[in-house]
Design brief:
Number of strands: 24
Helix content: 25-40%
Bound molecules: adenosine monophosphate
Largest sheet: 9 strands, mixed
CATH class of one domain: Alpha Beta
């Protein structure tokens, strides 16, 4: 028998046919045997549409069981899955189609007409529809297929997915993830977070992004677990499902919203063993309030599209607020200076990673791929971080958000932490804006706490009392909320545009 590294085959070896996989809002349950049959039908459908091993299958569809079948069927057919953010507009979709040249583009029925024009212009041979109620051309085609499919043999280095990064500047780049990368990622997380028989994952994240697709969904499939498969995050619904769940994965804004629900308490979380947060920094205030309301200490972890998870707070032992814990097993992670040399604990530097989960490069951008790797093979994450003496990693921010004022480096997070702790402040974002004398001027954008009207003078005085003069904001702006993308990341580029004009 040929040994295959096809990730679907590796999942399927672990499936319990009669165990429930997806628990849907309408009360339907889909077990692992049904998942296997459906993915076989979808794989035949893809082949019928002309998909061959090594091809790309692009999808801009809503979260649904059928979207999961499509993803897993793409793996089974030996092709690479290219999920698109459902918020992408025609310009972004055109760029991705032209860049990745998929064989098939799967779209929501309501988007069929505009998508057809984009697909035709990009030379994409086939376009089919898939609706979130199991409607559309692809489910109809799949229904006519047989329920067995011989999963295509793949090597570790074969492509399983291309995920375009949420990069806030420039055109999105396709991060190539292999079957080997994804297998390395899920097997480590499954062990590290102690997935166990009986676990029920509360899945509320989108599945076009690494967090919902490769962290949440993969962990549940690897554990042959049940998951509440929710179309989106809804705090009230989460509260109803928590007592019947054991693991929740969310972005920090999910936790902030949950905290606004009066019913969030230890009793609501009685079935839970683990709350995980990632994709953006968790504010200490959220971490502490969640702990005092529920008795649960959120486990914060760190990773990115280009390689999955790099660091995590421990399952047992100290989960330290404001840190992302220690490098995961199998991941070499260093904080380095501008010559790619590791810096000592306490010194801020660039985070660089190497490991079996780290991606195979950017799709058709060999020069960019080379530029983002060091001579000794570490990937430059673009994040700045600092190790504590006992090996906990703190994320200071993206290197492109570093402010250089009067020739001095200013790390926004240090100032944001001071401002967030001042009276009347809910949260803040510190950015650099062009300045004739200083190069960049430190600028604070602040969301007042409910009912508060903080004074700019008091904010400036508060920072002055705590930090060196060059870190004190030259200007303070107040906003009702900070612009965030779907994964809860503050879009500092939009703030720079808004206030730099
Ligand atoms: P993405 O590729 O969309 O998952 O974004 C990855 C980026 O999100 C990382 O490079 C970090 O800048 C940021 N990120 C992820 N997790 C965390 C975290 N726990 N704390 C701070 N930033 C994070």
């Amino acid at each position: 028998m040929t040994v295959s590294a096809n990730l679907y085959g590796r999942f399927a070896e672990r499936f319990e046919p009669t165990a429930v996989c997806l628990q849907l809002p309408d009360g339907r349950n889909i077990d692992y045997a049904e998942l296997d049959r459906q993915t076989a039908r979808y794989a035949h459908a893809l082949v019928a549409l002309g998909v061959k091993p090594g091809d790309r299958v692009a999808a801009q569809v809503d979260k649904s069981p059928e979207a999961v079948y499509l993803y897993l069927a793409t793996l089974r057919a030996g092709a690479a899955f290219l999920p698109m953010n459902t918020a992408y507009q025609s310009g972004e979709v055109s760029h991705l189609l032209g860049d990745a040249r998929p064989t098939v583009f799967v779209v929501r029925p309501a988007a069929a007409e505009p998508a057809r024009a984009l697909a035709t212009a990009a030379g994409v041979p086939r376009m089919v529809t898939l609706g979130d109620a199991g409607d559309g051309e692809l489910p109809a085609l799949a229904a006519a297929q047989t329920s067995e499919f011989a999963t295509i043999v793949r090597q570790e280095s074969d492509l399983a997915a291309i995920l375009y990064t949420s990069g806030t500047t420039g055109k999105p780049k396709g991060a190539m993830l292999t079957h080997g990368n994804l297998h390395a990622g899920v097997s480590v997380l499954h062990r590290f977070w102690r997935f166990q028989p009986g676990d029920v994952l509360l899945h509320v994240l989108p599945i076009f992004h690494i967090h919902g697709l490769f962290v949440a969904l993969h962990c549940a499939l690897w554990n042959a677990s049940a998951m509440w498969f929710e179309p989106r995050f809804d705090a009230k619904r989460v509260l109803q499902l928590l007592p019947r769940s054991t693991v929740f994965m969310g972005v920090p804004t999910n936790y902030v919203r949950l905290l606004t629900e009066a019913g969030l308490d230890a009793d609501a979380c009685r079935g839970m063993r683990l709350f995980i947060s990632g994709s953006a920094p968790l504010l200490p205030d959220t971490f502490q309030r969640f702990q005092s309301r529920t008795g649960h200490t959120i486990l914060e972890r760190y990773g990115m599209t280009e390689g999955g998870m790099f660091a995590s707070n421990p399952y047992e032992g100290g989960r330290r607020c404001g840190t992302v814990g220690q490098p995961l097993p199998g991941v070499s992670l260093r904080v380095a200076d501008e010559h790619d040399r590791p810096v000592p604990p306490g010194t801020i530097g660039s985070i660089q990673v190497k490991g079996a989960n780290v991606f195979a490069g950017y799709w058709q951008l060999p020069e960019k791929t080379a530029e983002e790797h060091t001579a000794d093979g570490y990937f430059r994450t673009g994040d700045l971080g600092v190790f504590s003496d006992d090996g906990y990693l703190g994320i200071v921010g993206r290197s492109k958000d570093l402010i250089i004022t009067g020739g001095l480096n200013v790390y926004p997070k240090e100032i944001e932490e001071i401002i967030d702790a001042l009276p009347g402040v809910a949260e803040s974002a510190v950015i650099g804006l062009p300045h004739a004398d200083f190069g960049e001027a430190v600028t604070a954008v602040i969301v007042p706490a409910a009912g508060a009207q903080p004074d700019a003078g008091a904010i400036i005085a508060g920072v002055k009392a705590a930090l060196a003069g060059f870190k004190v904001p030259k200007a303070v702006h107040f906003v009702a909320e900070l612009p965030r993308n779907t994964m809860g990341k503050v879009q500092k580029n939009l703030l720079r545009q808004q206030f730099g004009a």
